[in-house]
Design goal:
alpha+beta, 17% helix, 2 domains, 252 residues, Glucose Permease (Domain IIA), hydrolase, zinc, Cell_wall_metabolism_enzyme, Dup_hybrid_motif, protease
Length: 252
Amino acid sequence: MKTLALVACGLLVGAAGYWWLYGPDTVSTGTEINQAFAQATGSAVDATAVPAPAPVPVAPERVALPATPAATAPPAVAPAAEASHVGVAPVSTSAPAPTAVPEPVPGNALLLPVQGITRADLHDTFTDARSEGRVHDAIDIMAAAGTPVLAVADGTVEKLFDSQRGGLTIYQFEPSGRYAYYYAHLQRYADGLAEKQTIRRGQVIGYVGSTGNASAEAPHLHFAIFKLGPERHWWEGEALNPYPVLHDGQAL
């Protein structure tokens, strides 16, 4: 039986090959193949039972898809540059620091008349006794010879005077003419200083010295304030203590 089956298979294969080589004119139908197989084996074979060759897979047609847009990368953030290099300060998210308010300075109405001197350097010598039974009526501000003397306020140079006691002196009137400021024992006047000249607060008007009856070993500025009468005489006036005005900010 196995032999018959092998022979039948051989006939089928041979018939298929012959049909492939010589075309359908020789072996044209499955019926003829079935008759040949029946003659050889004595049994018919249903040609439709022969499995059809497996279809050759065809690659699907490629359809061009729209290009997917590339994700946009976020812009690169450069590190904050140092303000000293590029002139741009880094942005800060913290609350701004409160602006420092300068502490009110006692004596702000009048500037300290010696450069570099602080309120702590002042001493109240207004009532100190002087020769011939006099009272000082001023304060002495100790400083090195040649230290600049500053105008305590805006005003006018009323008188430049060289006296035996005060040496080189300056009488300054304030704009209203109610008060006179007196600077004495100066080493010299500032260059160009002249009577009736308008001067400004903080302007250098002279230099600390020891002219007049001051000791050369203790150069200082003798500073006084006078309240003037209606005559506005520079050599007359009521002496006021400069210490609380300069040290404590007391108003005139």
